[in-house]
Design goal:
There is one protein chain. By secondary structure, this protein is of the alpha/beta class. The chain has 9 helices and 12 strands. The strands form 4 sheets. A 3-stranded mixed β-sheet has the order 1-3-2. Strands 4-6-5 form a 3-stranded mixed β-sheet.
Length: about 375
């Protein structure tokens, strides 16, 4: 689409000659009252619509400020591509001005259709779009909704789906027909979930931590790649809460399974993991604390020697100590956690190194605008 700079270039090019008497100044229109506004080129936008935006300028003097305001108003409209503006004197007197706007519209979307959607109905796909018939065409909008359709299909198990689109524009009528061309591909269903290397935690327990589920009478079993990837992270996080700090998800992938079901492509999800050893909490010590005693801080700690080394619980302990300081005004206190692993006992000692800050004091609270309380 053309940029609004065209408007300014057009005026600069025509200032010396168009519709202006040779003996007059090239800026004769400045300061004259706008008595009428005319439009050309409107197709899908009505004069009433444009008048609702510009009628307030009638009887105002035409100035640089007014010109800029009109420019901003018009180019904020979704239907505006660009416009050309010319001025002529009113036939009534020499003090009045008629503005002529030649408007080029953005095409209006006349139709949205789909091709290749064998398994999903058109009205279902239409409901996923953020635009509809009657909206104004924007290439980025069409591209964004292409991705929306792909995501919708993938969430239904169409892992190989591809979507393209074409736009047919009628330059004369300023309309556009949008067609999304879909290659659905197969529907992937989870037929089995397998773990390799889980010597210490049972497969049933690990399966429950996953979002993806095996196809059954109660679950659709749709395969979604993004969910599969996030499930690998869920698996990692679960192991870490069970003390397996060294857990590694070597890889996660799927394989096609033999199946009598011709409607779906059945696949097996595989998680290849290295568990490592399980760790437990050892000694917990504190360093650098003078404001609060060891007993004060220890009261915030519920992890004990011999507990499973749960990384989530450890983080909660760090936050609890931090809150003790912040709640008492030591808002810039820094807390660093050192750890020492003992492979012979499978324990980890933790030393909380505290760098205390000065205490902050609230000297005055000012409330403005409070006229009534209940």
């Amino acid at each position: 689409m053309k940029k609004k700079i065209l408007f300014y270039l057009f005026l600069i090019a025509l200032m010396p000659c168009i519709l202006f008497a040779a003996e007059e100044s090239v800026d004769w229109w400045v300061g004259k009252a706008i008595t009428e506004i005319k439009y050309e080129g409107l197709q899908n936008v009505t004069e009433r619509t444009v008048n609702s935006l510009l009628s307030k300028y009638v009887n105002k003097e035409f100035t640089d400020e007014v010109s800029k305001e009109i420019d901003q108003v018009l180019y904020s409209q979704p239907w505006m591509d660009y416009y050309l503006l010319t001025a002529q004197k009113s036939e009534v007197d020499n003090y009045s001005l008629i503005l002529n706007f030649e408007i080029v519209e953005v095409p209006m979307i006349k139709a949205v259709t789909f091709e290749g959607n064998t398994n999903i109905k058109e009205r279902t796909l239409t409901s996923q779009l953020t635009f509809s018939k009657g909206d104004y065409y924007a290439s980025q909008l069409i591209e964004t909704n292409k991705k929306t359709l792909i995501d919708y299909y993938k969430n239904k198990g169409y892992n190989d789906v591809s979507v393209d689109y074409s736009v047919e524009e009628n330059d004369e009528l300023k309309t556009a027909n949008v067609t999304y061309k879909i290659n659905e591909g197969d529907v992937y269903k989870v037929g089995a979930i397998v773990f390799i290397g889980n010597d210490k935690i049972d497969t049933k327990i690990l399966t429950k931590t996953l979002t993806l589920k095996k196809r059954s009478f109660f679950t659709a079993g749709n395969f979604v790649q993004a969910t599969f990837d996030s499930d690998a992270q869920l698996l990692l996080q679960y192991y870490q809460t069970q003390g397996y700090n060294d857990i590694v998800i070597n890889k996660h992938y799927f394989e096609e399974m033999e199946s009598d079901d011709t409607k779906y492509k059945m696949i097996k999800l595989i998680f290849d993991i290295t568990e490592g050893q399980q760790w437990f909490v050892g000694n917990i010590t504190f360093e650098g604390n003078s404001v609060f005693s060891n007993d004060d801080i220890q009261a915030k700690i519920y992890l004990k020697d011999g507990d499973i080394n749960n990384v989530d619980e450890l983080q909660n302990q760090v936050q609890a100590i931090g809150s003790l300081y912040v709640d008492n005004g030591y808002i810039s206190t820094n807390l660093n956690v050192e750890n020492i692993k003992h492979a012979d006992t499978n324990k980890i000692d933790y030393n909380f190194v505290i760098t205390e800050s000065e205490q902050s004091h609230v000297e005055k609270i000012i409330i403005n605008g409070l006229t009534k309380t209940k």
